[in-house]
Structure formats: structure tokens, C-alpha cells
């Protein structure tokens, strides 16, 4: 069968799966950077620029020590439940947030002082108790199993996938990538619509859009083509011919077509990045997350050279599965988040695009409010941040949960039953990006289960 006789769905699936090999490009000269592009979507091309950046905290971030109860009554309840895990109250004064009308008050973790400044500036918002749901669910419905629940609750791999794709492990597209599908036609080079700086994530895979993977140093080259192969220019030339020449077999032809496009994309991206002036904003390049967000900032600076009007980015930080050593290790992780997000926001201000870039945090799930002695266990709902110049910050969105075990928001051990769905958060972000109400169900199939589809961040 020839390439032009291959069924379109099968051709796209081959292209999408082949792109997964691109992550190996820096490790071996023979590895192929197979970042592809899908067909242009029939969407109206926007004339402005917007970017959405997902920071995924792998392992399940502990919500109890990220946003800490601060008023006396709530803190005492928190400290009684958390025992040895509780953040000392006297360390929270500098990051305390204004009390609500019910008198309850929260504080950011002491390590999040820079985010407190962004809150004060009206650029950071907190989404309370958000998590994976199929439809709005009450505690009574959860206990009675009378409504559908997210599959495989409390499982790392599955809940990472449900957060990112609305489906458990094995999903082939995520809502970031499906959003990208709608914007392919509006970008001059659709390859650069969905860019992942931390490897591979289903969040970034669309039905047409393929995530383009880059390293913190820039485009991932095919080393045997961009450099002399084993000291031989002739060998390098032979490799280029081998992996880009026209072929008669449809699989070989498609593979070589994608590889050639990858080589061209790498050249385009490298040239664009080389022309970007150095940022004056300081990033801690010894830290993984800051390095990833520095690259995102550089890519955004190169947006015009790349012909981009809508982009979705993905960065990540691991290490949050703290069944043990939570007090010892969680503060350092939050420090990375604090420093990286603050630097990134400052960079968007420097680039003049602060109101055109929105960053949000996500994680597998929250954790238990109860202590297991040295850490917390897998939970469900959690608190997350939304950051950007367009964000109506300095406020909470959603419902502040009760600080209790076996209380009105708890399915056991202080595991929060989400009162806001990931789909609602995603719909709000997608709407800001320009996804129409008609197209929302394409990006988020379960959004039809919710009346509130814009949570008011912008």
C-alpha cells in the first residue's frame, strides 16, 4: 500500500506514535527527533498572541502544607490532625492571606513568599479544592456510589492521566493537545503549537496536534545529522540521505517525511532562539523547573519568528509523592515552584506579554490531611494556582473546605471530595485562549455535565 492509500486515521496515529521517539534525540546520534505536525484545523486565525503554561507537580502535591489554615480555630484543628507534619504557625505571618467573610484565614507555605507578592499584586489566584470528577458529586452520592466517579481513584498513573486527558492511563490525547488541534491552522508553523519542555505528557497530545519536545538547552537535534558522525562528514551525509530520502513503502515514506520535517523544525527553532536577546530576568538554572520555564520564556520571545499566535506549554517537577520525609523534602519542592514561577512571570513582564501568558499548576491529586507518621498518603482534591497578567488575582475561587476528618468535604483521612472539577478549570482556561463554547465539548467531553464553565479568573 502506498502512502496516499493509507487511511487517514491510521496515518495520523502512526505519525503521533512515532513522535514519542523524539525525547531520545540527545542521548544517541542515531535517535530520531520525530516531532510532527497535524493537519491545520479549520479555525479562525487569531491576530493576537496567547500562551497557556501547565506546571505539573508529579506525585501528588500535599495541599495541607501548601495552603495552610491560619486563623486560630482552623490552625488548631489543622495542627491536631497533622500532628508532626504541621507547619509552625509563627512561620506563616509573612504569607498570611486576607480572611474571608466567615472569619477563616489561610496562609501560603513560608517558602511561597514570592507568590504572596504576586497575590498582593493581583496576579496570582488560588483555585480551592479542585480535582478529577465526572460530574458534580456530593459526599452522599460518593458514599452511595450513585454517580459515576473518576476511574482508579488514588492511582498515580491513572489520576495523572485523568487530570491531563479526562481518561485513565492509556489515553491518547489530552485537553491541552485537543486545544492545540483548534489552533493549528492559525499558527504559521503548526509544529510549534504544543511544546513540551519536560519529556512526554498525554496532556500535550492532540488528535491532530503532536507535542514538540525540546530540552532546556533548546531544540533536540539528531546528533548524527547536525554533527559529524563518528568523525566522518561522509557518514553524516549518508545518514541524512538514509533517513530523509523518498521511499516506496508507506511506513518508510511516512517515517522519512516526519524525520525530514523534524530536521527542518530543529533548524528553524535553533535559528529563532539564537536571535532572541538575552533576558535580564534572573532564573536559577541549577534548578530543573526554573531551567524549563526559562526555555519557555525564550520560546515565547521567539514567537514571531516561529509564526505562533496560540501556544500550549508543559513543564513539570517530580518528587511530590511524600509518604515519608514530607517535612524534610516538601519545603524544598515548594521553594523551586516559588522561585521558578516568580522568575517566569517577571520574564513575561520583561517581554511585554504578561497579560498574554497564563500559567497554572496541576498534580496527580491532593494528599490526606492526616499524618501517617512521616508523610501523607494519596488523596483527591487539592488547591492550585493560576498566574498571569490577565488573571483577576488576589482572591480565592471555589469553596474553602472544612478543616476536619470525616467532615462535610472528606471521603476519609482528610481526602477532599473536589467541589470544583478539573474540567471547569480547563474550560475557563480554554475560553480565555479563544476556544468557543461550541468547541468546548471537543476539548473537554465531560464539560456538558457542568453548568458553570467559566470560573471567572479573567
Summarize this entry quickly.
Pfam families: DUF1501 (PF07394). This protein has helices at 8-18, 72-82, 113-120, 139-144, 156-165, 175-183, 223-226, 233-244, 250-274, 288-301, 303-306, 326-350, 422-433, 440-443; strands spanning 50-57, 67-69, 106-108, 124-131, 194-196, 212-215, 218-219, 310-317, 357-363, 382-388, 396-397, 420-421.
What is the overall number of helices?
14
- Written as H for each helix and E for each strand, in order along the chain, the element string is HEEHEHEHHHEEEHHHHHEHEEEEHH
Radius of gyration, whole Å: 23 Å
Shape: globular
User: Can you give the helix content as a percent range?
Assistant: 25-40%
Strand proportion, as a percent range, falls in 5-15%
Spatial gap, N to C terminus = 51 Å
Helix and strand content put the structural class at alpha/beta
Low-confidence stretches: 1-7, 19-43
Q: How many β strands by DSSP?
A: 12
The largest pleated sheet is described as: 10 strands, mixed
Overall mean pLDDT stands at 89
How many structural domains can be distinguished in the coordinates?
1
Care to describe what's here?
Helix content is 34%, strand content 12%. It has helices spanning 8-18, 72-82, 113-120, 139-144, 156-165, 175-183, 223-226, 233-244, 250-274, 288-301, 303-306, 326-350, 422-433, 440-443, and strands spanning 50-57, 67-69, 106-108, 124-131, 194-196, 212-215, 218-219, 310-317, 357-363, 382-388, 396-397, 420-421. Strand 6 (212-215) and strand 7 form a beta hairpin. The N and C termini lie far apart (51 Å). The protein has 14 helices and twelve strands. It is of the alpha/beta class and 458 residues long. The strands form two sheets. Strands 1, 4, 5, 6, 7, 8, 9, 10, 11 and 12 form a ten-stranded mixed sheet that branches. The longest helix has 25 residues, at 250-274. It has one domain (3-449). InterPro entries: DUF1501, TAT_signal. It comes from Pelomonas candidula. This is DUF1501 domain-containing protein. It holds the Pfam family DUF1501.
